[in-house]
Design goal:
rod-shaped; about 190 residues; mainly alpha; 6 helices
Length: about 190
């Protein structure tokens, strides 16, 4: 088994960091989408429930007092519950926070791509210096990043795997632009 030199180990570390960050970026995107979708569904539910409650009141006015009162009360109570949840949840703001985080992560992803592009033209010490700067930028974004959940991660993983990628040897190369892939990985 051939021993891997320090430059190749460094390249492997940078590729892995890129891969992990790509998953984090996509997870933040999915979290934003999930929050927006839930917010939209709840808004529609509020409108529908309010309309149904109003129809119940109309039923009362036209002689269906018992039935109309029960329907109006039931849907008004559900509508109130949704209104209280929406007021406290702040879903649009949470979606925006995930989107902002993803936007900041995109810049760091591009820094990794640039480093991998320049990799063969710069020395190991310069590569380490740039890597450390990128990791510092990444840590700064992570400190302010909103938390995601398993559903967002699962959706991100599915989306990335739809491109025939997986956490197997060579996967990172499949996620990189063609010009940056390893020679052995093109087969």
């Amino acid at each position: 088994m051939a021993k891997i030199n320090s430059a190749e180990r460094l390249r492997g570390q940078i590729k892995e960091a890129y891969e992990k960050l790509l998953y984090t970026y996509q997870t933040q995107q999915e979290a934003a989408t999930l929050k927006r979708d839930l917010s939209n569904r709840l808004s529609i539910a509020q409108i529908v429930l309010t309309a149904i409650s109003t129809c119940g009141v109309v039923g009362i006015l036209f002689g269906q007092a018992e039935f109309g009162a029960v329907i109006a009360s039931l849907f008004a109570a559900v509508s109130l519950g949704i209104n209280l949840y929406v007021r406290g949840a702040k879903l649009p703001e949470e979606a925006e926070a995930h989107a902002r985080c993803a936007d900041r992560l995109w810049v760091v992803l591009q820094d990794y791509i640039s480093l991998l592009t320049d990799f063969d033209d710069i020395g190991v010490e310069e590569i380490r210096r740039r890597r450390d700067l990128i990791q510092g930028s990444q840590a700064e974004v992570y400190r302010e990043a909103p938390r995601t959940d398993d559903k967002a991660y699962s959706r991100a993983r599915d989306r990335l795997k739809n491109g025939h990628q997986s956490f197997e040897p060579g996967e990172c190369d499949k996620l990189l632009p063609l010009d940056l892939r390893g020679v052995d990985d093109e087969e």
